[in-house]
Specification:
4-stranded antiparallel sheet; 7-stranded mixed sheet; elongated; 122 residues; 0% helix
Length: 122
């Protein structure tokens, strides 16, 4: 089973920046993709960014051009660089991963971190 730990959250003013990190640990065979979701108060959890094991990235329209997701080569750590932040970016940010627990498992399973709070003031 994979455990995901997020870090780097905090409070910034509009136009500022933050860098989130997510580290994977525990027992697993492989991690084939990692990404970020967020959930604002009273809202549903929404997709933010994703990166595949091959390094291909996908972004939500709301963060495109401002946020950058990256993955450290040959490691199980991803980062989300958030620039030019807006008050609407305020949310709890969750790391997620697609992983196989062992070589005999034919399926990738979704895992979630506990989340890190991000506050952006106007």
């Amino acid at each position: 089973q994979v455990q995901l730990a997020e870090s780097g959250g905090g409070s910034v003013q509009a136009g500022g920046y933050l860098r989130l990190s997510c580290a994977a640990s525990g027992r697993f065979y492989s991690i084939n993709g990692m990404g970020w979701y967020r959930q604002a108060p009273g809202a549903q959890r929404e997709f933010v960014a994703r990166i595949t094991s091959a390094g291909r990235t996908t972004y939500a329209d709301s963060v495109k051009g401002r946020f950058t997701i990256s993955r450290e080569k040959d490691s199980n750590r991803v980062h989300l660089q958030m620039n030019n932040m807006r008050p609407e970016d305020t949310a709890v940010y969750y790391c997620n991963a697609l992983s196989k627990s062992d070589a005999q498992d034919p399926y990738d399973r979704m895992y979630w971190g506990q989340g890190t709070q991000v506050n952006v003031s106007s």
